[in-house]
Write a structure and sequence with these properties.
Helix content: 40-55%
Largest sheet: 5 strands, mixed
Strand content: 5-15%
Structural class: alpha/beta
Bound molecules: zinc ion
Shape: elongated
Mean pLDDT: 84
Length: 318
């Protein structure tokens, strides 16, 4: 019943989305409202008084004080874009509807843009999601597990430490009723005490109670001021226990979703962004309408990325 309530909630259908964000004027207005919720401010001198130069999608705001000219997208993820804003908004919509953020190829087909364009948009939007989710830390009770992407690839050895696998930690906070709240999926350099220590300091609030299996490195969550509760039960795999129900459910869903969407995914390159898209969506699953409008705000407020940075291989942060 609990999952049904989430799965059958009303989202936002395409016609409704287009009625709100189908024109350049509507998209411009939405970005302006997201970036300057209390009204426009000059990015140089912070003056509110300004006038508008030009018209349409490329109109500029000129400061009455210092004469600085800026556009609605300058200094944001969408700066210097040659695409109509409504194409960006449609991409945001499509990505928000897909559990792992939709593949770049699907985006290319649905938007009618070139593959390199779709690819870059895809990377930028996923990066915006990752950046936003990294702001928050998990707290309360957290189920923690080690996991790999690409684990089924032929040639790898079975079990922990196999080759051709991208290691990541999966952590789900649960509320007092035992229901899942928030999710973190973060790449790690390996399952070492050092990596888990760094991860815990970045992603867990002090005083968090962390439940994991007996893997030694997990004790390092104590470095982040957390209480560690290892669960080790004889021959039975600890992850089959109810204490790990939600982290296992999430990992199962992730695996199914990735298997369906990305047949030839180079996990080692862009794994962090796919994981980010998945957890971003999971963390906002209670309100699918808010997920869309919230992503518009997050993208509008996200600082620009340089293309060469985007293309650098995603490396473990911890
Ligand atoms: Zn100014």
């Amino acid at each position: 019943m609990y999952l049904n309530r989430i799965q059958f909630q009303p989202g936002m259908a395409i016609p409704e989305f287009l009625s709100h964000f189908g024109t350049e004027a509507q998209c411009t207005k939405a970005i302006k409202a997201a970036r300057w919720p209390s009204g426009f401010r000059c990015p140089r001198c912070n003056l509110a008084e300004h006038y508008v130069v030009g018209h349409g999608a490329r109109k500029l705001f000129q400061c009455n004080g210092c004469r600085h000219q800026t556009s609605v997208t300058a200094g944001s993820l969408m700066e210097h874009t040659k695409l109509p804003l409504r194409t960006w908004f449609l991409a945001i919509y499509l990505i928000s509807q897909a559990k792992t953020g939709l593949s770049a190829l699907a985006l290319k087909r649905q938007l009618g843009v070139s593959y390199p364009t779709a690819w870059l948009m895809h990377q930028k939007l996923n990066s915006a999601m990752a950046q936003q989710d990294n702001v928050h830390q998990l707290s309360g009770f957290v189920q923690l597990d080690d996991a790999y992407l690409g684990g089924e690839r032929a040639g790898g050895k079975v079990g922990r430490g196999s080759e051709n696998k991208v290691p990541f930690v999966a952590a789900v906070s649960v509320d007092f009723r035992g229901h899942p709240r928030y999710l973190k999926l973060n790449l790690v350099s390996g399952f070492t005490r050092e990596a888990i220590s760094k991860w815990a300091k970045a992603h867990l609030s002090p005083q968090t109670t962390v439940i994991s299996d007996g893997l030694g490195c997990f004790a390092a969550v104590a470095d982040g001021g957390c209480k560690h509760v290892p669960v080790v039960v004889g021959a039975r795999r600890p992850r089959d226990l109810p204490q790990f129900k939600w982290v296992n459910t999430v990992l199962g869903n992730l695996k199914t979703t990735l298997a369906g969407a990305f047949h030839s995914l180079k996990y080692s390159k862009y794994a962090d962004r796919y994981l980010a898209a998945f957890s971003y969506r999971f963390n906002r699953r209670f309100d699918l309408r808010e997920l869309i409008t919230g992503l518009i705000v997050d993208v509008a407020r996200c600082r620009p990325f340089k293309e060469d940075v985007i293309r650098v291989h995603a490396e473990a942060r911890f």
